[in-house]
Amino acid sequence: MIKGIRHIILDLGGVILNIDYQATAKAFTELGIRNFPELYSQAVQTSLFDDFETGKIDTPAFIAAMRQLAGIPLGEADIINAWNAMLLDFPLRRLQLLQQLQLHYDMVLLSNTNEIHEAAFNKILNERHGIPNIGVFFDKVYLSHRVGMRKPEVAIFRRILDDTGFDAAKTLFIDDSIQHIEGALKAGLKAIHLEPGMTLEEDIFRPQEGR
After folding, report:
1. 118 is a domain residue
2. Domains in the chain: how many in total?
3. Residues β-bridged to residue 8
């Protein structure tokens, strides 16, 4: 853990929420969108997904675009279920860690997401842990489709710093995508890349850790 940190900005998928991009790729491939892995991945995605993640298009427009990509009359529920297939679970120990961190740090969530996933991950959190939404663990929540910006744009990090008054030099950003880490570093933040196999609870923080 980097010393001198007072503020923490966390990514959601792959950091707090376990995800599997391949599950969604497999689901859409089985629905008939054979080239889906070329259209969307952790590293790159086409403008359709960028637009959905920045709120430029809504759910009906996204559904229509996915039907067009498939070239077959897919049902809305099939598309939503395939899109949500990547969202797995919130490990209890990780949620307990977030509660501990709240006692010692200013906490902000920053996620590239969309309105379908927002509803789905909050449903998972509520049904499995009785927690109404992910915002319970944070002072502020920045979801890309709500703020109209997404990582790795430097602008989204500067927006957070401006909104909160955080000192960039005392702010730690943790994400599982290296391109997002690079964006944070350009904004002057400290950053840790959560590499494959690493977790918050095992590799970054230890129980009862203070400032």
Report:
1. yes
2. 2
3. 107, 172
What's the domain range around 33?
21-84
- pLDDT digits (tens), the chain, 211 positions: 678 999 999 999 999 999 999 999 999 999 988 888 777 755 556 788 899 999 999 999 999 988 888 888 899 999 999 999 999 999 999 999 999 999 999 999 999 999 999 999 999 999 999 999 999 999 999 999 999 999 999 999 999 999 999 999 999 999 999 999 999 999 999 999 999 999 999 999 965 444 3
Q: In the structure encoding, which two tokens stand for residue 139, read together?
A: 């002072």
Q: Is residue 56 part of a domain?
A: yes
Does residue 1 fall inside a structural domain? no
Write the CB contacts of 25 (distance below 8 Å, at least 6 apart in sequence): 36, 37, 40, 41
**∠ Cα 17 48 53 (to 5°):** 40
Q: What is the DSSP string of 34-103?
A: TTHHHHB-SS-B-HHHHHHHTTSS-HHHHHHHHHHHHTS---HHHHHHHHHTTB----HHHHHHHHHHHT
| Domain termination residue (choose one: 84, 106, 134) | 84
66 with 120, same domain?
no
Domain CATH for 116: 3.40.50.1000
Cα 110 from Cα 94, distance rounded (Å): 17
